[in-house]
From TrEMBL, chains A, B:
One of its GO terms (molecular function) is oxidoreductase activity. PANTHER family: AMINE OXIDASE, AMINE OXIDASE [FLAVIN-CONTAINING] B. This is Monoamine oxidase. Belongs to the flavin monoamine oxidase family. Keywords: Oxidoreductase. Residues 18-450 form the Amine oxidase domain. It comes from Actinoplanes xinjiangensis.
Amino acid sequence: MTNQRYRSVDVVVVGAGLAGLSCAHVLSGRGVDVLVCEARDRVGGRTDSVVVDGETVDLGGQFIGPGQDRAYALAEELGVPVFPTYTSGVHLAEDDSGRIRGFRGRVPRLGGLSLLDFAQAEARFERLARTVDVEAPWRSRQAEWLDSQSLAVWIRRTLRTAGGRRLFSTAARLLWACEPSELSLLHALFYARAAGSLRTAMAIEGGAQQDLLDGGAHALAVRLADRLGDRVRLRVPVRRITYGGDGVVVAVESGETFRAARVVVAVPPTLAGRIVYDPPLPAARDGLTQRLAMGATIKCMVVYPEPFWRAAGLSGYALSLRGPLAAVADSSSPSGRCGVLVSVLEGATARRLGGRPAAERRSVVLEQLAQLFGPGAAHPAAYIERDWSAEPYTRGAYAALFPPGAWTQYGPALRAPVGPIHWAGSETATRWYGYIDGAIRSGEAAATAVTSM
Amino acid sequence: MTNQRYRSVDVVVVGAGLAGLSCAHVLSGRGVDVLVCEARDRVGGRTDSVVVDGETVDLGGQFIGPGQDRAYALAEELGVPVFPTYTSGVHLAEDDSGRIRGFRGRVPRLGGLSLLDFAQAEARFERLARTVDVEAPWRSRQAEWLDSQSLAVWIRRTLRTAGGRRLFSTAARLLWACEPSELSLLHALFYARAAGSLRTAMAIEGGAQQDLLDGGAHALAVRLADRLGDRVRLRVPVRRITYGGDGVVVAVESGETFRAARVVVAVPPTLAGRIVYDPPLPAARDGLTQRLAMGATIKCMVVYPEPFWRAAGLSGYALSLRGPLAAVADSSSPSGRCGVLVSVLEGATARRLGGRPAAERRSVVLEQLAQLFGPGAAHPAAYIERDWSAEPYTRGAYAALFPPGAWTQYGPALRAPVGPIHWAGSETATRWYGYIDGAIRSGEAAATAVTSM
């Protein structure tokens, strides 16, 4: 790319995650002159990968599932093969005291009364979720009431057994990477509704964890960036957006500036709020970004010479009420070159262990895996982790969380453009909020919005 | 001040609000070479004033009251006279339907059952508040439980009457400038405890609104800045803090940099989170600033040729369940040059009216004042307002709000220094959090911390 100091383009996109890249991809296909400014030295945002022993291992978002049509379509367009998450054999469930039992199907064997309690609460949650307007959650029938309470309060009030509450809270941590106290009930319901249902969001088969991408989900971003070529600039953190009736000037850290008719800011809301806007953004938009904090995750990928658990009749899928890992799954690629277990430390656990030395985290994670899958699990070929809260250009995962009150007080500012400034990112999606598919949808929607005005 | 490009000082203070200025004042008095970098073209932070017809009118924080020892001491040191808020005569209370009744003393006449309900809830709140550890709210006896729920849920569960709930919710809006749904119960309790009690926080006589400063609270900041002279730099927004074992380099918008052994960041947490730190701040500190959003206030100051309500036997103090103003008070100075009514639009009301034209807000406010104090109130000499959420270098008032989960998950990061970076601002105070007095205390505490290490 030419390195003029005041390059002009039609549209600047801030952030080369899947939202920004999808947006630029669509715009570019329509003949729009687009430039993507990425702060990091890599593309992919909340997807990333490393190669271990010739095998690509995802360090960020990786699963896709039915209903995520845009993710499947993009994978097909880019020639990234899809394969099913391995689930053959017996799953494991670890209770509070560390007792491990096998199970098949969707439901672990963790005490009958707790499970019944959980199932009733789940049904009630699904019914409530169907009352949420995904386009405008603040307009849902009982919006004020649903948004006035945390998910923790709802769990305490709805479930009767301590075991059921622990189960529901663990599910919440898995889905949102936060404590149930941090989340508005309305947001939890919206999120489930945007994914179809809570069950879809939680499930492997038939749900959001059904499939994996051969070569990694990060390959989607890499291939999109390849197609965009020099329209993607790395290592250019956007620090200031000056805007008015005649367009925008986007200034990056080095002082270099880009002029455009419009800008699409495709980074998490909390990071969008850290850019300097001139003139300052309206109070409603700024107030929104003050409130949408990210979940806390440390993703732990453990690579073995082979998926040894399969030979023992185990699926590699495990749920644990004891932790620190609440869930583990097999994400080995079809190549058969090695075995990979994926797991994530979430919410309070991620915060606590995130402050400890890496060696301690590794040892805690491997110890739990050994208890679940046998002593062989304690000796991997590689242990790779990524604390997404420590990444300055992400600052948490999986997605932004709406605390109580935020949707009803600030929701309308989430997607509304401010003059020539448009907003994208998985948080602006009305379907699959927080997922890879939502990111792609949001980028495509922003591309349509900026070209239709 | 000399304008070297790489000026070196002992301590850089970010923000010339009362926290930053108090810090610099103490440091300077101890012979420490200090430089205060202020983004705006004025000092004072959340205090500010204008002069109308020779009279100083406060557009930000203005009241002080018993227990705020540092505020009184500073006013005395700086020669700013204190005078009692005018409360002689009859107060007014407007109910939901706009019916207005007079009252004397603390308690409005708004339906006996509602008041009884409110009084019982208040007593219960005070008892709970006494269980909170103000130094470390996350260590309070029932911290997890108190922090898992919004104040809205507690109000709904604790109060029995619709009238009582409305009354408590209105009190909450007055104190925290947000909807009760946005606030963690633990935070509300902590705040009250840090002020002594809920009753102290709410009261005029014997409480946080007891006294005013002749010449305005903003005069404290102006006089501190006068004493500091060229140690205060205006129009230098701090954009980057590079730090390490040998100190800090603070870079301002123009590119100018200042070296120091330590830096005290004395701005609201959400704004502190928008500075670029190199290396990036730990996840715990960043996660905190992602969560602490500011309350929403539009302060409306209405100036009349004289305090005409006094002649009618009215105190100028009014409470309203109907709104849009929830409370009005007399803040005329002892000079007798004019009459001033102070009022604030808060929370949802501020958000709604903040998006409307200024003329509409003016007319809505004056209409309500006319209903309360008679038609004369509709024709002021001046109407001056300040939307603190729209100010890029404040972004809300009165203070940062902890949503559910934030104190227990991120509380320890609020005051903990990160290497040579210290934090000040009213939000870091353990007494009078969110008040002028808390700001002064926090600045003085930071000054002690940076000199004792």
